[in-house]
Every structure is written in C-alpha cells, then in structure tokens.
Amino acid sequence: MLKYLLAGTAFGIILVKAELVSWFRIQEMFRLQSFHLYGIIGSAVLTGMLSIWLIKKFGIRTIGGEKINIPDKKFNKGNIYGGLIFGLGWALTGACPGPLLAQAGGGATVIAVTLLSAIAGTWVYGRFREKLPH
Amino acid sequence: MEQLSAMLRQPWPWYVAGPLIGLTVPLLLIIGNKTFGISSSLRHVCAACMPARIPFFNYNWKQEKWNLVFALGILLGGFIAMEFLRDSTAVTVHPHLVKELAGYGIQDYSSLVPNDLFTWSQLLTPRGLIMMVGGGFLVGFGTRYAGGCTSGHAIMGLSSLQWPSLVATCCFMIGGFIMANLILPVILSL
C-alpha cells in the first residue's frame, strides 16, 4: 500500500506546483485567457498515450509480473449528463476531486466541507441511480 | 542545491507538470495494474461509511483500498507542497480576469484558494454556500454519473483511446464554459 501512498503524494505535489489547484487558473482556462492548463492536460494525455502504446508494443508487465489490463469504458448517456453537471461544479469550486484533496491537505480546511458535499453528491447519485437516464 | 530548491518552489511550467501528470498513468499500471482515477474514492467512502443497502454501494470496497490510499497521498502531497515547496509570490493571471474579479470584490491572490471566496466565514453567506457546498455536490454527483472525473476520463480515458471518455471530457468543458461565463457572474454578484 505504501507505493500508492507515495504515488498519490507525488501527484498531489505536482497538482499544487502546477497551479492546477488554483481557482483563478481554472477561471482563466474557461475564459480562454491562458494556455497553461490546456498545455498541462494536452501534454499529460500525450504522455499517457505514448506510455500505453509502449506498454502494449513491448508487452511490459507489472512489477509483480502480471499482464497489464486496461478495462474498456462503455458509453452511456451519463457520460453526457454527468459530464455537464461535473463541468458546472468544476468551474464553481475551481477544482476537480484531486485538487480538492490537495487543497484540503494544503491547509484550506474549509475545503473539507466541499469534499463532504462531494461525497454526499456521490451518495445521492447512488441512491437515485435507477431513476436517472443512462 | 539552492538553485534546485528555488526552481522547485516556483510554479512549474506546463511542459514539466503535464508530462509528470501523464506519467501517473503508466506508474499505476506498472506498480499494481491499477487504472488512474480519483473520483472513485468518493464512491468507496460511501460504500465504507453509509452503504444503506443501496446496490451501487454494496460491493467489496476493501479490494479498492489502494484508491483511498492514493487519495490520502494527494492530501499529504498538498501538505508537503504548501509546507516545504511554498512560493511566496501570488498567482499571476490574465489582466482581464483580474479586472473582472475586482468588480466582485475578489482581489486577494495570495493563498492556495481565494481568501475572498473560500473561507469558514464565507461558508454561511449565500455566495459561499453555493460555491462550496453546491459546487462540491455537483462535483460528486456529476463525476459519478459521468463515470469518472478529469483523471479517469480526461487523462486515463483519453490516453487509452476510450471514446466515451472523449464525450465526457467535452461535456466537462462545455459545463465549465457555461458556469464560468454565464452562471458564475450571477453567483459572484450575490
């Protein structure tokens, strides 16, 4: 489990130092006033793509020797409706789930309330899942 | 050494931070065959703390403990970055944004989250309540409904060429544009 803790820690440090946790930076992105976050997301995706291509090409295995397996995501209408709803929340809080955690850890204690509210949102989704269009 | 420390303290440019974030994808695959995603941790918390016989929360969340440990790591990373790699200068943003926000009385750029918006004393104002409690709810509800967030869909999903993730990512952006440009101005004037 320690390896996941360390991976998360590194990720959290990157989020803060890249200013991906900044509400101001998110506002800039959604007003097309800065390239910064587009550059980050774009280069992150390209790096991820290249890595997965290399993993497949050379049949790279896990450190435990397992074959690497990436499950396919199946499309449903939730990708659209949920995506739009999350987008609204992202611009409002200026943070997606990762940055919320980093903000709270970084000393913005009030963000604990936002996190609890996000957990409540997830719970309400689970409770009414069958009634929602998918 | 001092130079390195000074470099680490500055905000990192996109071409450094982006690839590092991208490398989280192969890192998690190689260390444990795990697919990168953060919002699932919110579901695991629900499953662990208040499953309430809801089928969506009745699964063996303990098998997904790694995801909660990863989330805990992010919290710790936030602490380390603020405690030891802190940059004393304020975040610099586009002058148009500075001017727009000044119109709503938002002028303090010095801290991790805007001091004029995200504080305990703001929490019980209409504006603060909508932004912190309402915003958090939309993030939690929306990510689960969409089946992932920026990490699971935009980074992991696009990296592994999943087209539903492309749809979701486009919708994240559309929702964000609508909020930032059309709805947020109304909320900020409250």
From TrEMBL, chain A:
Keyword Transmembrane found: yes
| InterPro entries, alphabetized | Sulf_transp_TsuA/YedE
Which residue ranges traverse the bilayer? 34-55, 80-102, 108-126
Q: Which domain of life is it from?
A: Bacteria
Which controlled-vocabulary keywords does the entry list?
A: Membrane, Transmembrane, Transmembrane helix
Q: What is this protein called?
A: Uncharacterized protein
The organism is Chitinophaga dinghuensis
Automatic annotation (TrEMBL), chain B:
Q: Where does it localize?
A: Cell inner membrane
Q: Does the keyword Transmembrane helix apply?
A: yes
Topology within the bilayer: Multi-pass membrane protein
Q: Which InterPro entries match?
A: Sulf_transp_TsuA/YedE
Any idea which UniProt keywords this protein has?
Answer: Cell inner membrane, Cell membrane, Membrane, Transmembrane, Transmembrane helix, Transport
Question: What residue ranges are annotated as transmembrane?
Answer: 12-32, 66-85, 128-146, 166-188
Domain of life from the UniProt record: Bacteria
Q: Which GO terms describe its cellular component?
A: plasma membrane
Q: Give the family, as the similarity comment puts it.
A: Belongs to the TsuA/YedE (TC 9.B.102) family.
PANTHER family in UniProt? INNER MEMBRANE PROTEIN YEDE, SULPHUR TRANSPORT DOMAIN-CONTAINING PROTEIN
The name this protein carries in UniProt is Sulphur transport domain-containing protein
The record lists the organism as Chitinophaga dinghuensis
